[in-house]
Amino acid sequence: ENIKKVCQSYTLKEKANVVQYALHEGNLRAAAKFDxxxxxxGYWVMKLKSKLDEVDHSKFHYLEGGGRKSFFPNKEVxxxxxxxxxxxxxxxxxxxxxxxxxxxIVSEMALKSNNLKKKQLASNFKAFSMWxxxxxxxxxxxxxxxxxxxxxxxxxxxQQLLNFQRYDSKIYHNKILDNKTNEANENNPDINSGxxxxxxxxxxxxxxxxATIEENENVLLFAID
Length: 225
Hints:
Blueprint: H1 12-25, H2 27-33, H3 38-48, H4 73-88, H5 95-112, H6 116-124, H7 129-138, H8 157-187, E1 200-202, E2 218-220
Antiparallel strand pairs: 1-2
């Protein structure tokens, strides 16, 4: 009689224990200890050796292709492109905006599709928070903190910045010159700016001792540019 072998499934944790034992003691001893075929042990070692370091036993892990399948994979790709366009335009993206956009895409598909099954799925699609969480995890997306929308710089930004620096530097130098002039006038009170209003005033020449101008003589001074 042909004895049928009972197929037994092994979890990832059980396979990891076998592979770890095989790496230390060898495939033959691991096969004898866990009552397995040596070929099967060698296959597990070859496939799972590179993945053992990435396994986090504190969380649940799914095999590649495992888990619930997406009902509208093509529409989710379309939603991902829409998110990329919004982000490139420096606009904000919220959870509600993602849900509304996905509902709009699915409703358009339901109107254009002739498949009754797809129409029924589209009508029952609600875009719950669990769906949104799985979508973000699948496409490696994350909703960041709220920030202000960045304003795009003008084309001639560098030229405007250079002009402002020149203007600021000019004001700074003019202020220094004004301060020096005021200090000089305070240190030398005899120095005046003359009669810029072209009015008659009493003038006395104190520097020239040979001058014969009287103290009360009216002298007309003119401002010279």
